């Protein structure tokens, strides 16, 4: 699993706070086997200077490291899809990739709104759970909450697959498509 997030430039105020938060949560992402990298068009020297600033936002900077890549020359072509319009519109992008190297999530934030790395962590939990189990996560789901049984799974198979039980929400229509089970 990998997370790539772009920054229009180094030494931007919102991104400084984001990198500090991402670094603080690095161990949580690592527990989930997720590698993070931040992309900016600035030099490695600028990245190193900037890292000293955003590390002020965390209590133990040596324990919290994230990668910061430099884009230049031939690499700029490869990564331009990730940074496209970032430096012009100052957009903040997030991409989550699965182990199959396919894009699982992309989010675009305006430069005036900091990314929510707690939410990104929650989404990673959902993506990983739903990738390996026949479940979906409902609105506002958090790890440990009940999950939904995917609609393509027949009731009999769901009962076998989820020994803790499958519970259907009663709906005015009488349809039984909202099926829940404790998180496997």
Blueprint (SSEs and pairs):
Blueprint: E1 2-6, H1 13-24, H2 26-31, E2 35-40, H3 44-54, E3 67-70, H4 73-83, H5 86-89, E4 92-97, E5 103-109, H6 117-132, E6 135-136, E7 147-149, H7 155-161, E8 167-168, E9 179-181
Parallel strand pairs: 1-2, 2-3
Antiparallel strand pairs: 1-4, 4-5, 6-7, 7-9, 8-9
Low-confidence runs (pLDDT<50, min 5 residues)? 68-74
Tally the helices: what do you get?
7
Strand order of the largest sheet: 3-2-1-4-5
The named CATH superfamily of the largest domain? Glutaredoxin
Question: Which descriptors would you attach to this protein?
Answer:
five-stranded mixed beta sheet; 184 residues; alpha+beta; Glutaredoxin; Antioxidant, Horf6, Chain A, domain 2; four-stranded antiparallel beta sheet; single chain; 2 domains
